[in-house]
Amino acid sequence: MTNVRVVVGAALFDGGRLLAARRSAPPELAGRWELPGGKLEPGESAEQALVRELREELGVEAEPLERVGGEWPLRPPYVLHVWTARLLAGEARPLQDHDELRWLTPDEVGDVDWLDQDRPAVALAAGLLRRAEA
Known about the structure:
This protein is an alpha+beta fold. Helix content is 21%, strand content 40%. The chain has a single domain, classed as Nucleoside Triphosphate Pyrophosphohydrolase (Alpha-Beta Complex). Strands 1, 2, 3, 4, 5, 6 and 7 form a seven-stranded mixed sheet that branches. The longest helix is centred in the last third of the chain and has 15 residues.
């Protein structure tokens, strides 16, 4: 039996918008959109991994806020956990694994072709943004 490994994804919020990142690799995922993030390293908390991944992939500093409910299977042994996060400093730019970024309002989240495993978390994150605007 294989131990489950957690991949953290960031529903990164700024100004009432959610950040979407377009994959540049691997070939089977290239061109589709995801919530940025990556694998937890040994001894690292989900929040620490999220901060590190956003710094490495996007060049930004962010504050993890709360976990978005759910756990979504990726290829074994990985599962996706998503956290909301607030942009603290920097301008997001695609440094690795992505070739384009877009800030989307809750009404625009359906405008990009999200990876299947990200869709439920994106819907939950868009709902959180809508409630925050109300």
